[in-house]
Specification:
- The chain is an alpha/beta fold and 550 residues long.
- The chain contains 22 helices and nine strands.
- Helix 6 crosses helix 7.
- The longest helix is centred in the first third of the chain and has 20 residues.
C-alpha cells in the first residue's frame, strides 16, 4: 500500500507544526471592506416550495441570498415536533466528492434529537449554489483559483467584496451569512456552532474569525482543515508528478502560483488574505479538531498548523488523531474516523458543556477503536428520530410555527442599537480593561468592534480607533492604568529600522497613532518582519511602535 507523503516529518513533528501568522500587508484594508459589505447585507433563510430553484441540486430544501446576489442552497435538519431548539449549527462541505444536500440529513439527525437545528450549505459555485453563477467545480482553473489572478493584479488593497473576483472570500461570506440567516430563523439568543470538513474546515476557521462582529460562536468542530499555511505548502520542492492530488485545492493553487514566479510578493499578498493560520488566532470558541498523521490532500502538517494557531485557550480545544486523512487506510483508520463522528455528536450536544463532552471521549482522542462505555451510553440515550420535523413545526417553545422573520427581528433587537455610539464604546472599553495604546490587534479590541457593530454595522476598525482617540483627547475615556502587555525585546538596530519605517509611513513618530488598521501599517509589519527575519504579530509590532520616542 502506497502511504501518503509524511513530508519528512515524524508523527509528533507533524502534529507540532506551526505556520506563519504574519498577515498580508493587504489584510486589514481588505477585510475591513469585506466586513463593511457583509454588514450591509441582510440574509434571510427561505423554504423552497414547488419546483427547484437551482437544478444543479434539486434536493435543496432552503436557500438564502448571499453576497453579489448569489443564491446559496442548503438543507435544514430540525428537531422533532414539540422539541425546543437549543442550538443552531452550520456545516460546510469539503472540496471534492460533494454529494446532493439530501445526503446530509441522515448525518445530523442525532443532533436534531438533541435540539440542534442544523443548516448544511453548499458554497457558491458548487452544485446546489450554482444557479446564479454556474458550476465552478468542473473548470480547468479549479474552484479555489477562480478570480484569484484578478485580485493579484489589483492595486486596490481595500477591494470591496462586491468588486473582488476571488471566490474564496466570497465563500467565507456565504458561511457567515448562513450563520446569520439561521440565527435569525431560530432566534437570535440561541447559541450558534460551526462545523467544517477539509476545505469547509479551513474556511470555517476564517469565517469564525471574520464573523465575530456579527455573531458569538458557542463552539466549533473541524475536520482535516485545509486552506492554511500556504507559505510552507508552496515552499515544498516541486515533484513530478505533483504531490498534490488531481482535483485538489492545493494543485489548483500551485498551478496558478507557477505563473507568478516573478511576482511572488503580489501572489502571496493576495493568497494569504485567506490563509486559515493567519485568521485562527482570533478564535476563542471551544474547538474540536480532527487531525491526521499523514495526509496529502490537506497536508497533515498544514492542518496541524491551523489547529495550533487557534487562539482558544488550551483547556478548551482538543485534537482527535487519525492515522490517515483523505486516504483509505483500512479498517483501523475507518474506525477512527467513525469514532470522531460520534465524538463530534457529543461535543456539539448543547445539553453538555464542551469540557464534559470531551471528558467522556478523552481516552480515545489519540488512539483506540471503541467508544468508552459512558460516552456510548450517552449517545444511545438519545433516540434517533425517524424523520426530522417539518419547518412549519419548528419552534423555540413548542410545536407552534415560527413567527415571521420580521416579527422575530423586532422581538430580539440588538441591545446597543438605541444607545449613543460613545456610550457603547465607553462601556466596551471598560470591559476590555486594556489601555488604548495596548488595544490594537487584540481580542479585546475585537470585542469592542463587536459592540460597535451592534450599533453601526458598517463602522470600521480605523473609525472606532480614531473615535476612541478623540474621546481620550477630550477626557471622556476612562483611565485604565498600565498597559497589559509588555513589548517584545528588540535589538537597537531593529528599533532604528522601526523608526525609519514609521517615518516613511506617516512622516514622524509623533504621527504614529494614525497607523493602526491602515494599509501603511500592514506594509510596515510585513517589511519589519522581512528585514529582521522575525514573525511578530501586528499587536507586537504596534507595542514597539507605541513606545518609540516622539
Amino acid at each position: 500500500m502506497h502511504l501518503p507523503d509524511n513530508f519528512g516529518f515524524s508523527g509528533l513533528a507533524t502534529l507540532a507544526h506551526v505556520g506563519s501568522r504574519a498577515p498580508s500587508w493587504r489584510h486589514a484594508s481588505f477585510w475591513n471592506a469585506w466586513e463593511k459589505a457583509i454588514g450591509a447585507e441582510n440574509p434571510a433563510l427561505m423554504e423552497i416550495e414547488g419546483e427547484p430553484v437551482d437544478t444543479t441540486d434539486p434536493t435543496a430544501t432552503h436557500r438564502f441570498v448571499s453576497s453579489r446576489n448569489v443564491g446559496i442552497g442548503c438543507t435544514l435538519v430540525t428537531p422533532p415536533a414539540g422539541m425546543q431548539v437549543r442550538a443552531g449549527l452550520v456545516t460546510v462541505h469539503g472540496y471534492s466528492g460533494v454529494g446532493p444536500l439530501a445526503g446530509d440529513r441522515e448525518r445530523w439527525e442525532h443532533l436534531a434529537a438533541c435540539g440542534v437545528a442544523t443548516l448544511a450549505i453548499r458554497l457558491r459555485g458548487f452544485a446546489g449554489s450554482a444557479g446564479d453563477i454556474g458550476l465552478k467545480t468542473d473548470t480547468d482553473e479549479g474552484w479555489a483559483a477562480q478570480g484569484l489572478a484578478e485580485l493579484i493584479a489589483s492595486e486596490d488593497a481595500a477591494l470591496s467584496l462586491q468588486l473582488s473576483t476571488w471566490i474564496v472570500p466570497q465563500a467565507v461570506g456565504d458561511i457567515v451569512n448562513a450563520v446569520r440567516a439561521l440565527s435569525r430563523w431560530i432566534g437570535r439568543d440561541v447559541p450558534m456552532m460551526l462545523h467544517g470538513e477539509s476545505l469547509g474546515g479551513g474556511l470555517a476557521v476564517i469565517a469564525a474569525a471574520r464573523g465575530r462582529r456579527f455573531f458569538k460562536l458557542d463552539r466549533m468542530a473541524i475536520e482535516l482543515p485545509s486552506f492554511g499555511d500556504w507559505l510552507w505548502r508552496l515552499g515544498l520542492p516541486a515533484t513530478d508528478p505533483p504531490r498534490e492530488p488531481a482535483g485538489s485545492a492545493g494543485l489548483h493553487i500551485r498551478t496558478l502560483w507557477r505563473r507568478y514566479q516573478d511576482q511572488l510578493d503580489h501572489f502571496n499578498a493576495a493568497l494569504r488574505l485567506c490563509d486559515a493560520v493567519v485568521h485562527a488566532l482570533e478564535i476563542t470558541a471551544p474547538t474540536l479538531c480532527k487531525l491526521a498523521e499523514r495526509d496529502e490532500v490537506s497536508p497533515a502538517p498544514s492542518a496541524a498548523a491551523v489547529y495550533n494557531a487557534i487562539g482558544t485557550e488550551m483547556l478548551l480545544k482538543w485534537r482527535f488523531i487519525v492515522p490517515y486523512g483523505h486516504f483509505d487506510g483500512g479498517i483501523r483508520a475507518a474506525r477512527r474516523h467513525a469514532l470522531f463522528e460520534r465524538a463530534t455528536d457529543l461535543f456539539l450536544d448543547p445539553s453538555l458543556l464542551p469540557v464534559d463532552a470531551m471528558r467522556l471521549v478523552e481516552p480515545i482522542l489519540l488512539h483506540g477503536d471503541r467508544m468508552p462505555e459512558e460516552a456510548q451510553a450517552r449517545l444511545d440515550a438519545v433516540p434517533r428520530p425517524a424523520a426530522s420535523a417539518g419547518v412549519e413545526e419548528l419552534s423555540l417553545f413548542g410545536s407552534a410555527a415560527p413567527e415571521p422573520a420580521a416579527q422575530r427581528a423586532v422581538e430580539h433587537p440588538p441591545s446597543r442599537r438605541d444607545l449613543p455610539l460613545e456610550r457603547v464604546l465607553t462601556d466596551a472599553y471598560k470591559s476590555a480593561a486594556r489601555t488604548l495604546d495596548d488595544l490594537p490587534y487584540t481580542d479585546e479590541f475585537a470585542a469592542i468592534m463587536a459592540a460597535a457593530h451592534e450599533h453601526t454595522a458598517s463602522i470600521t476598525d480605523r473609525e472606532v480607533f480614531h473615535k476612541l482617540h478623540n474621546m481620550r483627547k477630550a477626557g471622556r475615556l476612562p483611565k485604565l492604568g498600565r498597559a497589559a502587555a509588555s513589548k517584545p525585546a528588540v535589538r537597537p538596530e531593529d528599533e532604528r529600522l522601526l523608526i525609519e519605517l514609521v517615518e516613511e509611513a506617516v512622516g514622524s513618530t509623533g504621527q504614529r497613532d494614525q497607523l493602526p488598521y491602515t494599509e501603511q501599517f500592514n506594509r510596515l509589519v510585513w517589511e519589519f518582519n522581512r528585514r529582521t527575519a522575525r514573525e511578530l504579530h501586528p499587536h507586537e509590532v504596534w507595542r514597539l511602535v507605541a513606545t518609540l520616542s516622539k
